[in-house]
Every structure is written in C-alpha cells, then in structure tokens.
Design a protein that fits this description.
Strand content: 35-45%
Radius of gyration: 29 Å
Number of domains: 2
Helix content: under 10%
Order of helices and strands: HEEEEEEEEEEEEEEEEEEEEEEEE
Largest sheet: 6 strands, mixed
Number of strands: 24
Low-confidence stretches: 12-27, 185-190, 194-215, 232-284
Mean pLDDT: 73
Structural class: mainly beta
Distance between the termini: 47 Å
Length: 405
Amino acid sequence: MTLRLSSFFGAVIIFSIACFCFIRVDVQAATLTEAKDIMTRQKTSNASNHEIQLVTPTGVDASTDTITLTFGTGFDLTTISFSDFALSHGATTGFETSETLAASAAAGVWGVSVSGQIITLTAPTDAASGEIAAGQRVVVRIGTAAGGVSQITNPSAVAAYSLMIGGVFGDTGQIIIPIASNDLLTVSATIPASSGGGGAGVSGGDTGGGGAVAGPPPPPPPAPPVSEPPPPTIVTPPVVPSEPPPPTIVTPPPAGGVLGGVGGVAGGGGAAGGAGSGGGGGGSGVSTLVFRDARVAFSEERSIVLTWETDRPASALIEYGVDDYSLRVTEEVSTRIHTLRINGLQPDTLYQFRITARAGGQVVSRRVTARTLPDVTPPTNPSELRAIGQEGQVVLEWVNPISDD
C-alpha cells in the first residue's frame, strides 16, 4: 500500500512539473502603426487617389496570408480593378520593393480583388517567411497615381468615415477619413503700384524670410504728379491639393505615452495655400490664424476622437491628461480639417485637451473635456484548451483572449 501511494504521488509531481514547463501561449497579431491614407481630394462626391501607408509588426509569411482594406459605406469602388493598384514595401521610405499585381495570385504575383467595400490583397502562391518582413512599411496606391485610369469616389455626405485594415496576415488597424463639403482654398494677392527705385513685396506673400528693403525716398518728379489707377488685384484659381495630410492611428506606447504617425492621429484633408506664412513680405503681415469648432466627435472605452478646423493649413500640438497636460502628440503636416483619435486611455475617466494650431504664428484652442465610456465588457475566458498526453507528461495548450480583461 505504501508503494502504491508513493507511485501515485510521484506521478502527480511529474504531471505538475510537465504542466509548468510545457504550457504554451499562442501569440496574437498586433495593431498596425503609422497607418495613414493620403488622398488627393476629400470633398464630397469627388474622385480621389489614395496612398495607404502602414507598418506591420507581424509581416506576411505564407501564401494563405491576405491584407484587406474595408472602406466605409458611401465610398464607391465599382470602377477600380487590379490595374489601378500599386503595392510596395520596405524598411526604408523611398527604397520600397514594388510587387507585381494581377487579378489573382500566382508565383511571384500578388492578387488584387474588389468586392463591395472590401479590397483584398492575396500573397503570391510561392510566398514564404519574410514575403513582407515584420516591421516593414507597406504602401498601397490606388488610382491614377498608381498608373491606373480609375479612382475611388468619395461619399456624398459630410462625415468622418472609417477605413478598416485586417486580413489573414493578422494585424489590424483603423484610419479615420474626414470628408468635407469643400477642400479647396481660394487665395488672392494685391500688388502695390510701383513708385520707382525699389521693388515691393506681394501682400501676404512669402518672401523667403526677408521681403523688400525700403531705400531712401526718390526725389520728387519735376512735373506735376499724375494720378495713377488703383493697383490691380490678381486672383489665383483654387488650388487642388496634391497630397492632403493623412489620417493616422495612434497606438498606445509600452510605457503609457502616446505614439504618433503624422502627428499620431487621424488627420483630414486640406488644400495647399498660395499666400505664404513666411517671415514678413514687404511690410504686410499674415492675418491671424482662426481656430474653429474644437470638439469631441465621440468617445469609446479606451479612445476619444477630436475634430477641429483652421481657416488655413496648419500643423498642431495636442496636449492632454487627467489632471494636467503632461501627454502630447504632434501633427506635423499642415491641414485645415483635422480628425484625431487618441488611444490607450483608461475607461470611465475624464480627460482634458487643448490644441495649439501653428501656421506662421500660433493660436491655442479652448479647453475641451471628455469622459471615456465605462468598461462593461465581462472578462473573456481562454479558448481552445487542449490536453496532449505524452510519455510521462501531459501538455496543456490554450489561446489567450485578445481583450484587455
């Protein structure tokens, strides 16, 4: 009897050690970083090129891997095909590797298909580990900028739309695309009448930091002065933005700070202005930057979306926190219509925000506050629990939930 009990307890000890040493946790895919969509037009019902950029923490390693781009309802993708796409990837911007595309995947060829609001990029049939290496930047161009003839048409309603990124390759992300009723900026400049003996700067123009230097006044003319007609006014036509600033996802950093791609937010469209904000043109200063409608678009459990507008393209510094403004994110690319998602926040917590817009000078918004939603999602249990019997041991395997709970 003593021998049997000893054998039993010995088996229990071996089983416990085996469970401790051989527990395996499946690794879940990560959140995309530096995701943004650069569009040529963000006006309602207008056709636009898209340049979607992202950094994949996981990469593409098999022929079964796919990358999907799901545009929000309202975008019209019916006219585009694989010939309107270009795909490249690489570790360094400007030195990406371009891929060959076709309607379906083949050896060395990526497949591109469009169904409703979903674009699917399928890895080549001979894809192997490192087809797209982990940590590489992926660039997907759509439209005439990709060598195609068709473009995606914007929705007819003014709103902030989502572009969801996912697929079998595992990484996920979201880009907010603001669509506006007008994305152009009309610019005018006045040329003062010349009095001889020196050039005059253009009102509101960019003289590259100096402007014209005033010399001594010329001697009066011998003849009586002749009245001159009023100075002519030159009005330039609206300028179509070549590359509006991109929306971007902000992902929470490991240490609790904020990461930013293109300022770390989802940014909106805008037009390039002609009246520059450079230092001093001929004595006529740049008008004061006007800040409009800084507000909270919506709140979620762990994120808040801010929107605001400026009367001309401007970059921005966004500061926020619970009791102070110790956290910050910057938007380096100038734009007029801004949409910013800040992730990594705590549920059911009141945050305060202030935005400093910059265009030549700078202006600070009013204080904006918002509370994240309570976390009402119950904890998720692990799934796919398996017990695998082996000689002298039992191996337990399971999949941990993605939820933060």
